[in-house]
Amino acid sequence: MPxxxxxxxxxxxxxxxxxxxxxVRILVDAGFSARQIRQRLASIGRTPENLTGILVTHEHSDxxxxxxxxxxxxxxxxxxxxxxxxxxxxxLQMRVDCRLFVTGGSFEIGDICVETFMVPHDAQxxxxxxxxxxxxxxxxxxxxxxxxxxxxxxIRPANVLVLEANHDVKMLQESPHRPWSLKQRILGRxxxxxxxxxxxxxEQVMSAHLRHLYLGxxxxxCNKPEIAGSVMSKRMExxxxxxxxxxTTSQSQPGPTLQxxxxxxxxxxxxxxSGSYSFAPSGLEQGEFREMF
Length: 293
What we know:
The chain is an alpha/beta fold. It has one domain: 4-Layer Sandwich (Metallo-beta-lactamase, Chain A). It is built from 9 helices and 17 strands. The chain has helices at 34-42, 61-64, 67-74, 82-92, 149-155, 169-174, 180-187, 195-205, 225-239; strands at residues 3-11, 14-20, 25-28, 53-55, 78-80, 98-100, 106-109, 112-118, 127-133, 136-141, 160-164, 212-216, 245-248, 258-266, 271-273, 276-278, 284-291. The strands form 3 sheets. Strands 6-5-4-3-2-1-14-17 form an 8-stranded mixed beta sheet. Strands 7-8-9-10-11-12-13 form a 7-stranded mixed beta sheet. β8 (112-118) and β9 form a beta hairpin. α8 (195-205) runs parallel beside α9. The protein is globular, with a radius of gyration of 18 Å. 48% of the residues are buried.
């Protein structure tokens, strides 16, 4: 069975993705109510009862809102680090069944390998994921104030990347509904990536094997999908990365399901020349991706 990825929803009020392989059906974060997660899974013909577990990036409510109900009823294991477990249990006022990992390490669930790495964000021990599957590598960078060498190197093998593009700087600065302290937090080095910062990050990780780029965690008040998409598409065109398909995610509904299959031999090398990237075959096996529904 091909690997399938569905962004069930992503934005400043909730984040959740579904990944399915031959042996594993997992959520990456559970930032909507359990009822919403059930409804969104049902829209793609899936059910929470068949989940293998939930990977958690950090303890903020837009990433764990549905954890308590899902885990209490279905006894689903949660995969997180120690600091995140402690923070979740403190917030939810309940013990949760956790499979602990050390940040920076990797672990296996069925036929996938999950690699973890630290990201700069204002949580206890926030992380990014690179999930290696038979169909390709899926990366998650949904909350971080800036990128650094570690983040770039750890996420670079991704064939599919979910990358935060939280805000348009001007819209955030001019927002009448947000206090200055909150604006400073969002703009800070442990806050959230702007559209331009996301484009910078995408340029740094660019390679011939990155094929699909989802822009996630968009602010409902301080960003617009057309702005985020335009900034990223222009940057991809500027650097010659025309092989990358850019999509914005939605807070309100699941996106199309992406099917990942390794079927072709393509490039993983990028050569910088005169301000643009050229991509030449190097013989590494890569994936072919297509939307299913």
